[in-house]
């Protein structure tokens, strides 16, 4: 089925999938100015361009790139997402090759509309030379972009709670008053990670004495 890659669609998919709370364990925050630790500079540029189009910023709010989704993926590829490292190596290279063949430039150097068209090629599985398929790589990156945008900031994404603001999720509350449960309630965002709560004790190495947030 032909359809646009749109913010409306990915936000709907995030809400349905429960992406706010679902994320791999033992992935920790990475500052925006830190170098990428698992991706090469070229791979990082391509991945940043992808996540920027999957959940783009607009005049009203930032998107996945600003939320740190690419850096979340990079950090996780050295830990919880390590089994996907080879898929990213092959997939990012295949996307750049597809972009050069179709538009004469690497994916990151193309305009937004051309990037969207190439991502639709992946989603609809018409792009060639992807292993196991272009659509499988598209779904892999989309899943991890959703995690990096909407999961608890403890895991390295959702910088400045951008993802929760996009969804209208009011944040963690240990108690909810009756007025806050009204359908028309406009509750302010609680900027608090679950791991800021005292029930999650830290070890000396900074890891948590929990079950990885599951």
Short description:
The protein has 214 residues and is mainly α. The chain is built from seven helices and no strands.
Spell out the helices and strands N to C: HHHHHHH
Count the strands? Answer: 0
Low-confidence stretches: 210-214
User: How many separate helices?
Assistant: 7
Helix share, percent: 40-55%
Structural class, judged by helices and strands? mainly alpha
Number of domains: 1
Percentage of residues in DSSP E strands: under 5%
Largest sheet entry = none
Distance between the termini: 34 Å
- The pLDDT mean sits at 83
Q: Radius of gyration from the CA trace?
A: 18 Å
Which descriptor suits the 3D outline? globular
Helix and strand arrangement:
Layout: H1 7-17, H2 41-54, H3 69-76, H4 85-103, H5 112-123, H6 134-150, H7 162-167
Helix pairs in contact: 2-3, 2-5, 3-6, 4-5, 5-6
How would you characterize the overall build of this protein?
The protein is mainly alpha-helical. The chain has one domain. It is built from seven helices and no strands. It has helices spanning 7-17, 41-54, 69-76, 85-103, 112-123, 134-150, 162-167. Helix 2 (41-54) crosses helix 3, helix 2 crosses helix 5 and helix 5 crosses helix 6 (134-150). The radius of gyration is 18 Å and the shape is globular. The two termini are 34 Å apart. Residues 210-214 have low confidence and may be disordered.
